[in-house]
From TrEMBL:
Name under which the protein is recorded: Uncharacterized protein
Origin: domain of life: Bacteria
Organism field: Rossellomorea aquimaris
Length: 111
């Protein structure tokens, strides 16, 4: 449900039921995947002396971070299946825009 969705045909009880069933599990899972798999977007490390943060592995060019997130998003949606209700599918398969689980080389070489 989007804030621009036309809800005029629905009863207030139906709208309330839809709103109560909204969750952000998929968005949280993707954000956690970004934090775990992209070192350029990791939180800074604490120095051994404890006097501050170390940005030794940080990349300060946001263009590279955007490119890395795009690659990870494509991998997440088309290559990384997860199991729900005993069915293992990628998010793209669940939406009906892909018919198979792709391998990373399929994405990189446009197969």
């Amino acid at each position: 449900m989007d804030c621009t969705t036309n809800l005029s045909s629905l009863e207030p009880k139906e709208i309330a039921r839809l709103v109560l069933n909204v969750n952000d599990n998929a968005a949280n899972a993707f954000i956690q995947l970004i934090r775990r798999r992209l070192s350029i977007l990791e939180r800074p490390l604490t120095t051994a002396r404890g006097d501050g943060k170390s940005y030794i592995y940080a990349n300060f060019n946001p263009e590279y971070a955007q490119m890395a997130i795009t690659i990870l998003r494509t991998y997440y949606n088309f290559c990384l299946p997860y199991e729900s209700r005993n069915i293992k599918k990628t998010p793209a398969q669940r939406l009906g825009i892909a018919k198979k689980v792709f391998e990373l080389k399929d994405i990189l070489y446009l197969r």
